[in-house]
């Protein structure tokens, strides 16, 4: 049956309700007639769907073979609709032996007929026509939807699969008559509407399976008949096969339960009933458990059945859950026990209050035997008191750590038994108690098993039923209201537990509980009020009581949910009560509570209508459809593609589920008429297609008009590939259109729960065009529980369409270019990696130290690791000394002439030799000479290995050797690390992270790969390339694939995962990582290829190891003889003596201190004396170094003898010296031999210098496996890149860009966040738990060390030493030199910091100026000046009220409303909204009149002040306010409006500061209306003596310069009555420019605030270091002020942007109203002030930075020196200016404008000192007094005081010049100048002077 998706249909016949063959018993919804049951199904369906509906229960569409059957059916037919019957035309028959005509579905001829008229022979389906007297008719369209009649024949079973169930009633057994498997008719079990002629007749047949079925089922009451067609093949592979069985039930002879069994002989035999043994625990009292055991257990399989009650539910996993036995109709439940003994809990069956039947089925071979036992009720009767005690005891064990599923199940079982009687629920408090207990038990959903779920459901049902059993008084209703919420929460917990396994049958309980709760909530509820809604995590209910007219007004929905029901106009379809309201009940389940049927991928919701008495109002067969929206449980993506209608217009859709509605949403780039064709497995054409439509269709929106919904009624939807052809309809002569269309395909299904069939059905429901990926729209004609099933097709791509996809490259080059750029980046990176690999080869070696003693044969291997910190490498000469328990080696210079050493992150290997073993190492001493450009060195660790004993010592250094870092020292001694130190957390964590990042992680190791690794950088880059492309392929494959909405979600805070997403991740990992792990493993473990020379190939002689050749070459060369001189021998003797003395730790000899005065004989004598002296000291110390060193000294003397002999007598200047030297050397050799022989050897150390043999060959893969790795890299990269490009071309440009952004963000997050965290976490685990010490290059070190051998003898056995002990670096630098270096380093650091500070500040200042001037526009001045000039015409110095109105009517209106509509003046500036006039007034009698004048002056009106401002409301003409009949504008002109109401701000005038409120008249947006309003104001005397200021306010926008201008024209009046004109105009830019400068300006703003963050970091460090002293430095305060002002300006800038957007939005909504931009203008002005102060403070700081200039520093110092005297003079000058200002204000203030106020007078006197003075104005006013005042002021201030002030400054300047001392900063500046000049090759004068001075000193 593989490959076919048929619905599994069974013949469901109730065994318990079945009679014998004598009578026919049918279910309630069916009618019996003759030997068949007929069901009249009032659901509209097509012919095919109707037949499939009948086949599900083993029937078929009705056959009418007689007139009696016809009349029987007519009695039950409804007259409003036609009915399908099982009649078809033979033109679609599969058999060849039938004649053309009409037949029944089983192929029998039509003998009886009831035609209205004789039908024509054509393809069609038969139905009963109700409009023609119930006659038959043939319809050529079998897709029409009619009602239908199903016929279920007794003794006949039909199944569309290869198995079916046969049943007989009690006392009857099965007798099979006929059975076949295959196909005899083409009309049964059809899956599509296509013609069966598509399959040839010879492809379909049938096989007789009667014997097989009879063998299985004859003699049994219930049997599963199976047709095994695997041996003979599939009879009908194209159309599918079905199983047909005909049988009858015959009476059973015996009265016991037996089963028929087939023996080998084929004869029938019967197995007797088996016996059971009974026993129980505590049988004397009430037993807890009952045990039943087989007497003779010998069964292959044992099934136990225990009788239940009528409420027992079926279970999903077993098909035999109920059985009917001969002794009464019993409901049996299959137990889990599958052994010889059954254990039953007494409490579990005691609640049934009856005797319990137990049945056992024993299967042995092909035989099944049965046994039964009756458990009497008296044995298991429940004791309620004991139950209560058990409940109390178990309650104490719940919700604890040791709480188990068994405890919860036992507790629920006890409670269920207690609640069997209603006596436990007497009061509402009892229900509350048990509800609380139940909730506490099941709130831990993970511990509620299947049995506990069903028990909890039954308890919950009992509690909910008791809600209405009490006397529902108001008090009881209030008491039970809280209980209702608890019951629903418990139901939610049950659903949550059910969602974990979905095995329990709890839907009936949950639905009943919800219905009971809804009924309770509706008690005493008044109609047409707010609904009652209760929401829990998984269950929500809605109830309301509405009058019938209000049912269709609003949709019914639950809060925060997209689920809704919208009822149509029910009209005459439903009989609603007339005088009473309707109860509306809505329930919503977030988890599907039904275990049967197909999975539901949405929220399950139901709606019902009922009368107030609880009777249900049926809602079915509506004329108009109910609109239902069902959201899916999680967001799901859809499959979308983009088609370019110019190139190709075909798309593929992969359907994975048959008969599922398909929703196609098309979104064209422009409005087009599209013809859409759909083809199945072939490209559609006009002649050959399965569906066709022309879009757009009718709809409310473009989305609906371009939506095509295809259901099973429109076409047969099979599994497979569909091709969608889109053809635009173009005018004649047009070949193509430049347009594209986006296609989104969604599969959704609207289904409802059909209670009678216990399954989901789609009858009467269809998918609506408003369906989206998030919500499904269902249109149904009835009400019940609804859900929707959702499937999203996987992303597929067809490689055969590559050329077609690549033809769209011009429109969608995104992914192709992206993949191409990755390939290009790989090529460039691989070239770089290859070059680095070649460099790494030279680094893999052991460096033999040049200063090793040629006769020191004890070898130590040093592995020194330099740290990874910045600047960790060094250019200095590094010296090492090993200190052991038995001695200390001489200093050695660590260097290698062939490669750089001590690079950052590098590991260097050195071979150091000593004359004797040092014993157990204790410490290592390191120092350097601080030479080179970067002398500082960070040493990470050192490992020393004794190559003789293979013992290793580790030194954990992690320290700087530098004069300017940490301890500021270049010399350190590091002790040996203990095992505890090695396993310390910090060491293990650092080792693990370093190894993982540098070698284990393929991405990071590309840069930091250890040179010793065989895994090259090129290979690592290639692996990264392969992993990236494979990951991109899996990402784009699953991009947009939805997850199953029914799955549980793992909520981890902000991260939510579903199991589908986890599975996709695992699946992607299985796709990507195995092959890439294989590639990495091949590259990492392949052995390098060995290269052989031709000579080696010919003779196969091994070449000496490389280390041996190096040592040989370094110790001897052909020109040795030429280097031998007497001086060389003297130096050699001194070296031998020095090394011997150093080993013996004795002082250096005198001749050693003066080597120039030494000769050979003297030196040898002193060496001999030293030997004798040390022997005397150490002769009794058996473990002394002397004895170990003596052997080495003997070899040195022997070599020295050879050197003398090579030199010969001719090399000595004095005769006889040659022989004397030889005698001295030989005598010392004999002395050493005698000394050594006098001491017995106690210890003998191993000096095996020959390399140990390798224990085995190196493990790994053969070298040629590398080619396999390269082949895999190439294959994975090319395939992944190619298919990724295909997917990108299919997705379209927008989706491709979205995918690239997603993959880029995912890759970045993984590379820089996730993977480093993973490495750190693994390192922490490794350091805390594993604690294993591993070394990444241990194998390489061992292999190299084994190649090192002792050097061979030189010429005649002579070896020349290269060590020069006179080098200064063999001793640590003196402390004085270190201090001097420190000072120089500090100066250089300060110099660098100073240069950096200046450069950073210059960059900061540049950004600040760009930001500040970017907010300004020079065009703003010209715009404001133009507006001022335009509106100031006609203004005189003194204007009265009439003049103001004249100016307003002429100048103001003519400029506001120019000749271009909507623009002012010349038409360049747009008037934004309207303009308005506003005035401020003072109250009447606001001042006091002198008593003497009160009779003459009745009123006094003071000048304007906020205290005197009038804020009252008046009528026209400023009369007392009463009711005003007029327009709104005319009314507001006389009523005061506050500043907040008008959205205005205070305004500075020339006289006062005016509030923003006042009396307002809006002039509107046209001149005629404005002129009329002005005339009204003039006529009504709007301006009078109480008016103090008039404001004309408006806003304009000039698009040419992109500026808004907020204009306020002020006419202010003093108390004397004259008006003065002033204008306040401010320009603001609210729309940012779109040019390149704007982008540059935005970048500048970002950089500016990056500078601010940098300065905040610096100031924070200063504050932390200086604490409160930080605030005493004025320059720190300056920096702090700049930071505060910068952030303030940012907040003001944001505020201005937000306020500006709000003002513009208000203008867009009310374009005729006055838009107030005053708040925006004030904020913009504030921003300008802040930026100005920022620039000021930044320039002041620039002065501070330029203090390093000596001249500027001198001026600053001079001002500081003279500050005390200067402050006194400043006070005197201020007092004199103050005195003259007050005097002039009092004298001239009443008549001269320059002195009218004190500030004006002070400004005028101050300007006098600079020659800015109007002399004629004063002289004309008062010649004598004016001349006197001016002359004295000039004499006292200018000639006397200012002269003394300047002299003080000059004196301080001269003193500062004499006492000036150069500061450290000046030295730093000089150092900077010298470096800058030297950079350009120029010598500074100061440096030349120092060189001359230094030369003179040396001379």
Q: Give the distance, in angstroms, between the N- and C-terminal Cα atoms.
A: 111 Å
Q: Please tell me how large the radius of gyration is.
A: 53 Å
* Low-confidence sequence ranges: 1-22, 93-98, 193-201, 253-272, 310-329, 790-794, 1042-1055, 1093-1122, 1149-1157, 1240-1257, 1349-1355, 1887-1899
Q: Briefly note the structural class of the backbone.
A: alpha+beta
Averaging pLDDT over every residue, what do you get? 75
Write structural notes for this entry:
- The chain has 1899 residues and is an alpha+beta fold.
- It is built from 46 helices and 65 strands.
- Strand 54 and strand 55 (1055-1058) form a beta hairpin.
- The longest helix is centred in the C-terminal third of the chain and has 40 residues, at 1375-1414.
- The chain is flat, with a radius of gyration of 53 Å.
- It starts with 30 loop residues before the first strand and ends with a helix.
Provide key terms for this protein:
1899 residues; flat; disordered N terminus
SSE arrangement:
Layout lengths: L30 E3 L2 E10 L1 H9 L4 E2 L5 H10 L6 E7 L12 E3 L20 E5 L5 E5 L6 E8 L2 E4 L3 E5 L4 E11 L23 E3 L1 H8 L4 E5 L15 E10 L8 E3 L5 E3 L5 E5 L8 E6 L6 E7 L24 E3 L6 E5 H5 L5 E9 L2 E9 L1 H4 L3 H12 L9 H14 L9 H15 L7 H16 L8 H28 L5 H15 L10 E4 L3 E8 L9 E2 L6 E3 L15 E8 L14 E7 L5 E2 L8 E6 L7 E6 L5 E6 L6 E7 L5 E7 L10 E5 L6 H4 L1 E4 L9 E9 L11 E15 L4 E3 L3 E3 L7 E6 L4 E7 L10 H5 L7 H28 L4 E3 L9 E9 L11 E7 L2 E2 L3 E3 L12 E8 L6 E8 L8 E10 L4 E11 L9 E5 L3 H4 L2 H16 L4 H4 L8 H21 L11 E4 L2 E4 H27 L8 H6 L6 H10 L4 H4 L2 H19 L5 H4 L6 H19 ...
Parallel strand pairs: 4-8, 44-49
Antiparallel strand pairs: 1-2, 2-8, 3-8, 4-5, 4-6, 6-7, 9-14, 10-13, 11-12, 11-14, 15-16, 17-18, 18-21, 19-20, 19-22, 22-23, 24-25, 25-28, 26-27, 27-31, 28-29, 29-30, 29-43, 31-42, 32-39, 33-38, 34-37, 34-39, 35-36, 35-38, 39-40, 39-43, 41-42, 45-49, 45-51, 46-47, 46-48, 46-50, 50-53, 51-52, ...
Helix pairs in contact: 6-7, 7-8, 7-9, 8-9, 8-10, 9-10, 9-11, 10-11, 14-18, 14-28, 16-29, 18-19, 18-28, 19-28, 23-25, 23-26, 25-27, 26-27, 31-37, 31-39, 31-45, 33-36, 37-38, 38-39, 40-44, 41-42, 41-44, 43-44
């Amino acid at each position: 049956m593989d490959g076919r998706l048929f619905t599994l249909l069974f013949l469901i016949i109730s065994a318990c309700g079945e009679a014998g063959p004598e009578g026919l018993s049918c279910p309630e919804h069916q009618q019996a007639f003759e030997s068949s049951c007929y069901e009249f199904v009032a659901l509209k369906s097509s012919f095919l769907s109707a037949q499939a509906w009948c086949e599900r229960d083993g029937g078929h569409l009705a056959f009418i073979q007689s007139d009696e059957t016809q009349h029987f059916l007519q009695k039950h037919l409804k007259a409003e609709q036609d009915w399908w019957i099982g009649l078809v035309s033979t033109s679609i028959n599969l058999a060849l032996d039938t004649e053309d005509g009409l037949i029944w579905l089983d192929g029998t001829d039509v003998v009886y007929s009831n035609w209205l008229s004789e039908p024509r022979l054509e393809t069609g389906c038969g139905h009963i026509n109700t409009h023609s007297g119930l006659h038959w008719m043939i319809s050529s369209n079998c897709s029409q939807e009619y009602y239908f009649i199903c016929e279920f024949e007794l003794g006949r079973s039909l199944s569309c699969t290869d198995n079916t169930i046969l049943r007989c009633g009690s006392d009857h057994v099965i007798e099979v008559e006929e059975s076949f498997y295959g196909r005899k008719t083409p009309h049964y079990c059809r899956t599509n509407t296509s013609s069966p002629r598509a399959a040839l007749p010879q492809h379909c047949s049938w096989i007789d399976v009667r014997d097989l079925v009879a063998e299985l089922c004859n003699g049994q009451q219930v049997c599963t008949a199976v047709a095994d067609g695997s041996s003979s093949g599939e009879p009908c592979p194209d159309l599918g096969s079905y199983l047909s069985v005909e049988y009858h039930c015959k009476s059973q002879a015996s009265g016991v339960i037996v089963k028929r069994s087939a023996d080998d002989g084929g004869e029938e035999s019967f197995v007797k009933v088996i016996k059971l043994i009974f026993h129980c625990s505590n049988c004397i009292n009430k037993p807890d458990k009952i045990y039943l055991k087989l007497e003779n257990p010998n069964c292959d399989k044992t099934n136990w059945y225990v009788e239940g009650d009528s409420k027992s539910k079926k279970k999903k996993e077993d098909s035999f859950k109920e059985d009917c036995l001969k002794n009464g109709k019993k409901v049996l439940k299959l137990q889990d026990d599958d052994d010889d003994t059954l254990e039953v809990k007494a409490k579990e069956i005691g609640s049934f209050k009856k005797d319990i039947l137990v049945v056992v089925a024993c299967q042995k071979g092909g035989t099944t035997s049965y046994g039964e036992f009756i458990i009497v009720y008296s044995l298991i009767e429940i004791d309620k008191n004991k139950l209560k005690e058990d409940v109390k005891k178990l309650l104490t064990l719940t919700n604890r750590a040791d709480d188990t599923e068994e405890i919860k199940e036992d507790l629920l079982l006890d409670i269920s038994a207690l609640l069997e009687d209603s006596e436990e629920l007497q009061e509402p408090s009892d229900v509350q108690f048990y509800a609380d207990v139940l909730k506490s038990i099941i709130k831990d959903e993970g511990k509620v098993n299947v049995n506990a779920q069903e028990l909890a459901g039954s308890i919950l049902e009992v509690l909910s039923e008791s809600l209405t059993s009490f006397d529902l008084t108001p008090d009881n209703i209030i008491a039970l209201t809280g209980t209702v919420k608890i019951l629903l929460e418990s139901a939610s917990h049950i659903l949550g537990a059910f969602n974990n396994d979905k095995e329990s049958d709890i839907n009936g309980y949950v639905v009943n509980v919800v219905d009971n709760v809804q009924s309770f909530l509706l008690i005493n509820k008044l109609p047409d009020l707010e609904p009652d809604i209760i929401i829990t995590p998984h269950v929500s209910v809605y109830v309301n009581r509405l009058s019938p007219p209000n049912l269709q007004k609003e949709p019914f929905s639950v809060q925060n949910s997209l689920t809704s029901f919208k009822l149509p106009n029910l009209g005459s379809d439903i009989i609603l009560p007339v005088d009473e309201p309707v109860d509306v009940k809505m329930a919503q389940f977030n988890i599907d509570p039904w275990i049967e049927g197909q999975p539901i991928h949405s929220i399950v919701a139901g709606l019902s209508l009922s009368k107030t008495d609880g009777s249900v109002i049926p809602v079915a067969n509506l004329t108009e459809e109910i609109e239902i929206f069902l959201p899916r449980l999680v967001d799901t993506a859809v499959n979308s593609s983009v088609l370019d209608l110019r190139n190709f217009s075909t798309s593929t859709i992969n359907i994975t589920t048959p008969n599922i509605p398909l929703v196609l949403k098309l979104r064209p780039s422009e409005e087009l008429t599209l013809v859409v064709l759909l083809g199945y497995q072939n490209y559609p054409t006009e002649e050959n297609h399965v569906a066709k439509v022309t879009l757009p269709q009718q709809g409310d929106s473009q989305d609906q008009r371009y939506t095509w919904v295809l259901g099973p009624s429109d076409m047969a939807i099979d599994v497979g590939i569909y091709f969608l052809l889109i053809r635009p309809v173009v005018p004649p002569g047009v070949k193509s259109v430049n347009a594209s269309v986006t296609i989104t395909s969604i599969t959704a299904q609207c289904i409802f729960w059909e209670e009678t069939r216990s399954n989901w059905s789609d009858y009467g429901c269809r998918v609506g065009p408003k369906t989206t990926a998030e919500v499904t729209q269902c249109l149904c004609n009835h009400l019940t529980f609804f859900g929707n099933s959702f499937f999203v097709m996987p992303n597929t791509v067809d490689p055969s369409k590559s050329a077609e996809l690549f033809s769209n490259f011009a429109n969608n080059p995104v992914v192709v270019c992206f993949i191409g750029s990755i390939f290009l980046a790989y090529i460039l990176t691989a070239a770089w990696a290859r070059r680095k690999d070649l460099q790494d080869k030279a680094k893999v070696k052991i460096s033999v130290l040049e200063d090793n003693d040629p006769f020191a044969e004890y070898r130590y291997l040093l592995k020194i690791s330099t740290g990874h910190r910045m600047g960790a490498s060094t250019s200095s000469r590094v010296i090492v000394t090993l200190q052991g328990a038995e001695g200390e080696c001489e200093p050695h210079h660590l260097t290698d002439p062939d490669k750089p050493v001590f690079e950052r992150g590098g590991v260097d290997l050195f071979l150091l030799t000593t004359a004797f073993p040092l014993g157990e190492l204790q410490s290592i001493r390191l120092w350097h000479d601080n030479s080179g450009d970067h002398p500082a060195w960070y040493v990470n660790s050192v490992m020393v290995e004794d190559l003789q004993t293979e013992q290793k010592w580790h030194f954990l250094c992690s320290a700087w050797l530098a004069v300017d870092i940490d301890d500021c020292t270049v010399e350190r001694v590091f002790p040996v690390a203990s095992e505890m130190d090695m396993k310390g957390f910090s060491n293990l964590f650092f080792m693990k992270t370093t190894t993982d990042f540098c070698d284990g992680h393929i991405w990071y190791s590309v840069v930091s790969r250890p040179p010793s690794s065989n895994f090259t950088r090129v290979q690592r880059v290639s692996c990264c390339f392969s992993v990236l492309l494979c990951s991109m392929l899996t990402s784009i494959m699953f991009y947009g694939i939805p997850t199953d909405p029914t799955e549980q979600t793992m909520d981890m805070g902000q991260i939510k995962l579903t199991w589908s997403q986890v599975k996709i991740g695992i699946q992607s990992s299985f796709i990507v990582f195995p092959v890439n792990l294989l590639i990495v493993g091949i590259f990492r473990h392949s052995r390098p290829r060995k290269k052989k020379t031709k000579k080696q190939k010919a003779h196969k002689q091994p070449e000496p190891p490389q280390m041996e050749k190096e040592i040989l070459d370094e110790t001897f060369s052909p020109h040795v003889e030429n280097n031998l001189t007497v001086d060389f021998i003297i130096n050699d003797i001194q070296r031998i003596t020095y090394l011997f003395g150093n080993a013996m730790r004795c002082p250096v000899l005198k001749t050693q201190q003066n080597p120039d005065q030494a000769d050979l004989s003297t030196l040898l004598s002193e060496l001999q004396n030293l030997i004798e002296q040390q022997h005397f000291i150490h002769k009794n110390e058996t473990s002394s170094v002397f004895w170990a060193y003596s052997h080495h000294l003997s070899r040195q003397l022997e070599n020295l003898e050879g050197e003398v002999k090579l030199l010969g007598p001719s090399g000595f200047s004095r005769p006889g010296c040659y022989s004397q030297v030889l005698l001295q050397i030989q005598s010392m050799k004999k002395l050493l031999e005698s000394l050594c022989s006098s001491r017995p050897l106690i210890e003998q150390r191993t000096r095996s210098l020959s390399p140990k043999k390798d224990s085995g060959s190196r493990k790994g893969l053969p070298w040629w496996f590398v080619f396999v790795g390269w082949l895999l890299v190439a294959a994975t990269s090319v395939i992944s890149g190619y298919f990724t490009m295909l997917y990108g071309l299919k997705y379209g440009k927008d989706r491709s860009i979205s995918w690239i952004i997603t993959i880029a963000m995912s890759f970045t997050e993984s590379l820089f966040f996730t993977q480093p965290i993973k490495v750190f976490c693994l390192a922490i685990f490794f350091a805390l738990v594993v604690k294993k010490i591993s070394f990444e290059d241990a194998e390489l070190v061992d292999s190299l060390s084994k190649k090192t051998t002792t050097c061979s003898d030189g010429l005649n056995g002579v070896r020349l030493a290269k060590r020069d002990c006179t080098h200064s670096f063999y001793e640590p630098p003196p402390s004085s030199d270190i201090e001097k270096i420190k000072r120089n380093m500090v100066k250089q650091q300060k110099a660098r910091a100073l240069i950096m500070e200046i450069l950073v500040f210059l960059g900061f200042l540049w950004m600040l100026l760009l930001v500040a001037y970017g907010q300004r526009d020079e065009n703003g001045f010209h715009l404001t000046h133009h507006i001022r000039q335009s509106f100031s015409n006609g203004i005189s110095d003194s204007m009265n009220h009439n003049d103001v109105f004249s100016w307003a009517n002429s100048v103001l209106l003519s400029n506001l409303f120019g000749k271009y509509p909507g623009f002012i003046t010349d038409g360049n500036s747009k008037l934004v909204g309207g303009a308005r006039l506003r005035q401020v007034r003072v109250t009447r009698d606001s001042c006091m009149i002198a008593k003497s004048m009160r009779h003459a002056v009745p009123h006094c009106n003071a000048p304007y002040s906020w205290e005197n401002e009038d804020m009252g409301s008046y009528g026209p003409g400023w009369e007392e306010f009463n009711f005003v009949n007029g327009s709104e504008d005319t009314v507001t002109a006389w009523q005061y409006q506050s500043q907040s109401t008008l959205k205005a701000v205070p305004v500075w005038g020339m006289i006062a500061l005016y509030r923003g409120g006042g009396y307002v008249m809006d002039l509107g947006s046209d001149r005629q209306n404005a002129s009329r309003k002005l005339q009204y104001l003039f006529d009504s005397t709007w301006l009078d003596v109480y008016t103090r200021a008039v404001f004309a306010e408006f806003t304009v926008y000039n698009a040419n310069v992109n500026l808004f201008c907020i204009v306020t024209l002020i006419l202010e009046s003093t108390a004397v009555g004259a008006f003065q004109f002033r204008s306040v105009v401010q320009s603001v830019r609210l729309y940012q420019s779109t040019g390149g400068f704007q982008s540059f300006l935005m970048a500048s703003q970002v950089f500016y605030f990056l500078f601010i963050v940098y300065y905040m970091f610096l100031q924070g460090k200063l504050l932390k270091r200086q604490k409160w002293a930080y605030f005493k430095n004025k320059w720190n305060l300056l920096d702090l002020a700049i930071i505060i002002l910068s952030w303030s300006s940012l907040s003001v800038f944001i505020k201005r942007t937000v306020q500006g957007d709000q003002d513009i939005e208000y203008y867009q909504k009310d374009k005729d109203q006055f838009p107030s931009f005053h708040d925006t203008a004030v904020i913009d002005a504030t921003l300008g002030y802040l930026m100005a102060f920022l620039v000021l403070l930044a320039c002041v700081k620039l002065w501070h930075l330029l203090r390093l200039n000596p001249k500027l520093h001198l001026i600053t110092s001079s001002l500081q020196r003279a500050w005390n005297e200067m402050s006194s003079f400043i006070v005197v000058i201020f007092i004199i200016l103050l005195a003259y200002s007050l005097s002039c204000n009092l004298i001239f203030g009443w008549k001269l404008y320059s002195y009218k106020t004190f500030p004006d007078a002070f400004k005028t006197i101050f300007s006098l000192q600079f020659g800015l003075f109007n002399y004629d104005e004063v002289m004309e006013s008062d010649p004598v007094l004016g001349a006197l005042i001016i002359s004295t002021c000039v004499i006292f201030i200018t000639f006397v005081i200012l002269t003394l002030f300047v002299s003080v400054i000059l004196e301080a300047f001269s003193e500062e010049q004499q006492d000036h001392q150069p500061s450290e900063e000046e030295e730093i500046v000089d150092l900077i100048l010298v470096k800058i000049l030297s950079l350009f090759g120029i010598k500074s004068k100061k440096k030349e002077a120092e060189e001359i001075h230094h030369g003179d000193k040396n001379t």
